[in-house]
Amino acid sequence: MNTSIDNHNLDERSLLLLKALVERYVQDGQPVGSRVLSKDSQLNLSPATIRNVMADLEDMGLIRSPHTSAGRVPTVSGYRLFVDSLLTVQSVDKALLNKVNNEFNASMEKDEAVEKASKILSEVTRMAGVVTLPNREIVQFRHIEFLKLSNNRILVIFVADEQEVHNKIIHTDRTFSAAELQQAANYLNSIYAGESLADVREAIVKDLEHNQQQVNQAMIDAVTMAQHVFENTPHEDYVVSGQTNLMDFSELSNMERLKQLFEAFNQKQSVLHLLDKCQHAEGVQIFIGEESDYEPFQECSLVTAPYSAEGQVLGVLGVIGPTRMAYEKVIPFVDVTAKLLGAALKNR
Amino acid sequence: MNTSIDNHNLDERSLLLLKALVERYVQDGQPVGSRVLSKDSQLNLSPATIRNVMADLEDMGLIRSPHTSAGRVPTVSGYRLFVDSLLTVQSVDKALLNKVNNEFNASMEKDEAVEKASKILSEVTRMAGVVTLPNREIVQFRHIEFLKLSNNRILVIFVADEQEVHNKIIHTDRTFSAAELQQAANYLNSIYAGESLADVREAIVKDLEHNQQQVNQAMIDAVTMAQHVFENTPHEDYVVSGQTNLMDFSELSNMERLKQLFEAFNQKQSVLHLLDKCQHAEGVQIFIGEESDYEPFQECSLVTAPYSAEGQVLGVLGVIGPTRMAYEKVIPFVDVTAKLLGAALKNR
DNA sequence: GCTGGCACTCGTTTATACTGAGTGCTAACA
DNA sequence: TGTTAGCACTCAGTATAAACGAGTGCCAGC
User: Fold this and answer.
1) What is the phi/psi pair of residue B103, to 5°?
2) Which end of chain A offers a freer environment for a tag, N or C, measured as fewer CB atoms within 10 Å?
3) pLDDT, tens digit (0-9, with 9 covering 90-100), for A193-230
4) Which of residues 38-67 of B touch strand D (CB under 7 A)?
């Protein structure tokens, strides 16, 4: 790795100072001046010298001062450099780790575990926790069932992956008898059971083409109905916890922006898009402030990690909080939570 | 009705003045003084006279002044008197009514309709809308199905009331074969289909006692499993929309309290309790400020109405907003929305 | 009983000055 | 050449005071 690029051609001392500055600022939220930094940092330097260095750092866009007579605060690039090469990751407290691990107990179902993970993330970090629901594409088709409601409304229940039950009402062109429905279900169960949903979807399309030439109307009907169910397969989704924690941060106390942020969580769509980007990143991924390129998150950072079981990436989890957060603690915690959630989902 | 009690022994003029004051205050959120009221109200009275009347109203606890040199604002009792006997209900705008009615279309399922109602309430009133999910007790049992997961974990799927699908995983003492499960389902479907959930629950208990003496183990097993499913029947629940609308009100801009309020929505429990109280009230029910006796709602009012279909009360819906709201518009709108939702659920 | 008048209250605004944290620059020092 | 002490300067924040104005309560007169 070319550290000279990573580090903006800065010498050791400047980097140490930047590190000290970020840590200090994260700690008490006040712009930090040369005087405190002089006492704070290991290097025994006078405030004046520090001011010189800070001037350089400011020129490089790593820090800035809110106004003339205030200290300096890190810019996004400053934070970036910090998290990329400066920060000393703190290992997660043993006791905490144990406690969290115990929260995931064996009798827990998928949804519960996800919910729990989100809650843990928010409670431990005192920020907002978010977990995407396990990806459905790689899930196995297990069982399907049709129930006639009214003449051409049919309730379809299908079970995926041992315990996920989905249901949907479809509208058909003609009326089916209970026997026909039973037959269709049997047909589908016999040929698709055990395949992944993605595969099933593909297979359905092929089956339709293929059967068209044949004359078995019953099969065509069955597959057509299945297609109804799978074509707009349930959207992805995620769970948020501890949104209200964000109301405690003074940097997010602007009602205007806070409202935007909360609405973003409700909308889901854009946040999902953002989380998707992290899905196939390896390990922890971080968006600092405007890096996310998403207006409502301007003042926030997002720390994520994908979680997986048996080599399969299932989803993403993370926390959202103010840019000024204790990255050195949050990052390892998000990381470990992802692993624990993955483990908890292993035999589900 | 004994108006002399209702009206705190106030003469017509005082009441008219109170009415004018409340309306004015609701309109522009500023304490209203004698001068504006003198111009505003029909009665041609000098500010001095109005001041005298206001002094009386203040003595009775209907209005108060935030400080010496401000106008007056209504107290909770003031609002109460206003909504009970003073307010002139404005009929809902025809165009709006039509628009709202069209939002509920026939192909909508129960959950969707509820969701929609909540959204409509929040969007039209620009406050938070809330709708409890239709009561499940009166719902019909339709179909049950058991699916074996692992040795003693069984996935139970049951369909209620034509389209509601519920699922739950139960743990059994012994292992059942697929055939046994099928048999159990058949048994339950044949004897309980069509009954209300409440009845089913009762029947199960009786069946168990009764069958105990008999020797048909299969039936006992079936009923025992059913009992597992029904014993802690899914909790009540509700849907909120437009929480973030509440962030626009200056009277709720205290972060501390706003956080409390949002957390109350998440907790659900207490809010549900409050809504429950309205379930069997006839027509619109209103809690003004502290009347709800629920801390987080201190600065808020809740306007609710039960909704029903075919004579059966299904749930409650309403809006939550600042005490200072346009009751004369909100009340009829909540009322009519309840009716429309009821109608939309009629043939579901 | 209603009204005009008047003294009074008190939150809000505006102006002014003061404070203190922090800077940039320069000159001297090692 | 890098470091430091010193000094003038900037500027947000706070305090103080004065002026303002919206509104009141009360009283005397119509």
Assistant:
1) -65, -35
2) N
3) 888 877 887 887 787 777 665 556 666 777 777 777 76
4) 47-48, 51, 54-55, 58, 65
